[in-house]
Amino acid sequence: MSKRNWVAENYYSKDFEWDELRQEVENDPSLQYHLLPYTKVDSGNQDDVQDSEAWDKFHARHSTGKFFTERRYLLKEFPELASCKDFSKVLEVGCGNGSTALPILREKESTILYACDCSTEALERAKEIINADNSISTKHRFHSFQCDFSTLGFPMWLACNTCRGSFLEKQFLGFPGVKICHSSREDNCKIDINSPSCSEENKCCIGGVDFITLIFTLSAVPLDRMPTAITQCFSILKPGGLLLFRDYGLYDMTMLRFEPAQRVGYREYLRSDGTRSYFFCLNSVRNLMSAVGFTELELEYCCVKSVNRRSGKIMRRVWVHGKFQKPICD
After folding, report:
1. d(C-alpha 23, C-alpha 263), whole Å
2. CB–CB of 157/191 below 8 Å?
3. Domain covering 4-32+52-325, topology
4. pTM for the complete prediction?
5. Which purpose does this protein serve, as stated in its record (predicted)?
């Protein structure tokens, strides 16, 4: 990506070359533990509970004040969200406190946004922020529900079996033990039953979504559950729809700050608060997406320098930016 405007300040995505950072890290003896193989111990089904509880505590701890700022830059990174057709349906996976949802809803007054998170605390924070917004009809186009897409999958009211077709069934032959949620757990989520994807006799779902945003979400999912998570995203996306991806990149400053004892897998780390983070290289994202059938449109590192105002220290941030399309059926 080239030089872009970010709100009122200049924003660059190529402040430094990722390959130069890679060489520096891989030649630093003090950072070699990040590169070592890791044998993961199976923790059973407890991960499901621990992940959800950890994020509940995280959002409860940061319920006062504005811990996250609005991610307005995403509309410049993903202009498709601004230029989309009227009444497009967006699913934000891992919505957190609404920092991504709000600028999307403000940008276009007809966009309908569905938002899910595994944390009930996060959903409460998101609802509060959306309801407090003064924009016209913002809260009426925001529909949230609790869901861990990497374990239970997405509810059938997003896309029924007729809309998903045979793809979901074929994909899950390779992922035994994955459960599919067949009901909505959010009673007040309004469902548009007029979608042409459902038959007249079976108006049971919204017919899939036009966009899925995965913004700093997949990195919080255990590595072994990522293929299932991406399969789920593919299954409810309309043919021709886009998955918009942004997450932590390999050798990001955050990764290099983790201590050896915080490693829980190869490129996987556990924070002291129980939340986890994985750091992606381009090939790891490419392989996940292509394995389920996505077509790659964009995939690159964003390498941004920022300065800590208090210490004056330069921080090198690395994120992976990607756009992937579900092929249009013949």
Report:
1. 21
2. yes
3. Rossmann fold (3.40.50)
4. 0.81
5. S-adenosyl-L-methionine-dependent methyltransferase.
